[in-house]
Design brief:
Elements lengths: L12 E5 L6 E2 L2 E2 L3 H15 L3 E5 L14 H11 L3 E3 L6 H8 L5 E4 L15 H5 L2 H6 L5 E4 L10 H9 L2 E3 L1 H10 L1 H4 L6 E5 L4 H11 L5 E4 L1 H10 L13 H19 L4 E2 L3 E4 L10 E4 L7 E4 L1 H12 L3 E5 L12 H12 L3 E5 L1 H9 L9 E2 L4 H7 L5 H12 L2
Parallel strand pairs: 1-4, 1-7, 4-6, 5-6, 7-8, 9-10, 9-15, 10-11, 15-16, 16-17
Antiparallel strand pairs: 2-3, 12-13, 12-14
The protein binds 3-phosphoglyceric acid.
3-phosphoglyceric acid (3PG) binds next to loops.
Pfam family, one: PGK
Subunit structure: Monomer.
InterPro entries: Phosphoglycerate_kinase, Phosphoglycerate_kinase_N, Phosphoglycerate_kinase_sf
Length: 406
């Protein structure tokens, strides 16, 4: 196991790695759950009288989401309810001076760590530990707080190198994400385990299904994933989604694994029995529900019989894990599958985890209460890793840090 904030003595100089990576549109950073979640860790550190430097990333070089953390500092300040100063430097003189000037109960936000050359290469922790970034920052602090669970699948310098050179602790986000997301791979459930397997990232979802095939009793199929499974059993309802041949390429990439799952686990796969469509480009057009045998339309959601069946299964399950939406819920007309089934999961007293950026967004979009679920994850790639039972380097290094000092 790892040390948590409960093990950290008050009044230290602390470097906390957060994941505030966010959607950015025309240069404007969107406020989202990552800020409100990490604010809890930051507030606790400030209340405990620590001097806190925050380290985070945004985007990747070459993308238009690759921006400084100035807006992140402002948004986070609002969530924390204290001023967090933005420092336009990661580990140069300006950063070191700002760290030295920290007072108890104060926090600063260092510059986007992906703007340094040392951060992004995928390397082993021991390699990263030798980098200038790690060797310069580590001696400035008493402790490292790893809170960036959603980046824990990356072997980056600030994720695996820094904690190797410092006393490392898991932050509140790290602990809650790790425990909930790993439950399906690590925990025994007495009753039925159900997974909503939807969305448009078919390869990820089919990876998860393949590794969990013997642990899950019901895979509720929807979204593009559902269309691919329907196609494999003879109902070619797949529509050509925006990115021209994304549907076709996902079919080609995954059809063999889909057929294997159909052969080996026929009774665990729950197909949509009806689908909903309308003229996507005409807002006033009515939504029609048709049997899956009708293949003349571009389907955008599961139908009402399917919603009822999926909701019933969720209601009698002991655990439900959600990966991917059942329809194109961003358009309210096609939100029925995703929203109604999520509501049924929320109403039931099962252990429930909802992950993946898009699906989690549906919870607020359709006015559901996050507290109705056991956990709403803020992770994307790391959630997939956890579901497939792969270990996360950023978590392993925190565990290793305990063993090294005992
Ligand atoms: C995320 O947003 O999922 C994490 O911050 C990881 O980002 P990356 O995929 O650019 O490494």
């Amino acid at each position: 196991s790892y040390r948590t904030l409960d093990d950290l003595a008050d009044g230290q100089t602390v470097l906390a790695r957060l994941d505030l990576n966010s959607p950015v549109s025309v240069g404007v950073v969107e406020d989202n759950r990552r800020f409100s979640r990490h604010a809890r860790t930051v507030r606790e550190l400030l209340d405990d009288g620590h001097r806190v430097a925050l380290l985070a990333h945004q985007g990747r070089p070459g993308r238009d989401t690759f921006v400084t953390l100035e807006q992140h500092a402002e948004i986070l300040s609002e969530h924390v309810g204290r001023e967090i100063e933005y420092v336009p430097d990661t580990y140069g003189e300006t950063a070191l001076t700002a760290i030295d000037d920290l007072e108890a109960g104060e926090a600063i936000m260092l510059e986007n760590v992906r703007m340094t050359d040392d951060e992004l290469p995928e390397r082993e922790p021991e390699e990263h530990a030798k980098s200038d970034l790690v060797q310069t920052l580590a001696p400035e602090f008493d402790a490292y707080v790893g809170d960036a669970y959603s980046t824990a699948h990356r072997k980056h310098a600030s994720i695996v190198g820094l904690p190797l050179e410092m006393e490392a602790y898991a932050g509140r986000v790290m602990v809650s994400e790790y425990e909930a997301n790993s439950a399906i791979a690590n925990r025994e459930f007495d009753g039925e385990v159900t997974m909503v397997a939807g969305g448009k990232k078919a390869t990820d979802v089919i990876d998860v299904m393949t590794s969990l095939q013997d642990r899950v009793d019901n895979f509720l199929l929807g979204g593009i994933v559902g269309e691919l499974f329907l196609r494999a059993v003879g109902y070619d309802v797949g529509r050509d989604i925006d990115e021209s041949d994304l549907y076709e390429s996902q079919w080609r990439a995954n059809k063999d694994r889909i057929r294997e799952l159909i052969e080996s686990h026929p009774s665990e796969l729950v197909y949509p029995s009806d689908l909903a469509f309308a003229d996507e480009n005409d807002e006033r057009s009515e939504v029609t529900v048709a049997d899956v045998k009708n293949k003349d339309h571009d389907y955008l959601d599961v139908g009402s019989d399917t919603v009822e069946q999926f909701s019933d299964i969720a209601a009698h399950s002991e655990a439900v894990f959600v990966k991917g939406a059942l329809g194109m819920f961003e358009d309210e007309r096609f939100s029925n599958g995703t929203a109604r089934v999520l509501e049924a999961i929320g109403r039931s007293d099962c252990f429930s985890v909802v992950g993946g950026g898009d699906t989690s967004r549906a919870i607020e979009m359709y006015g559901m209460d996050e507290a109705d679920f056991s956990h709403v994850s803020i992770a994307g790639g790391a959630y997939i890793n956890a579901l497939t039972g792969r270990s996360l380097p950023g978590v392993e290094v925190l565990k290793g840090s305990v063993e090294a000092t005992h």
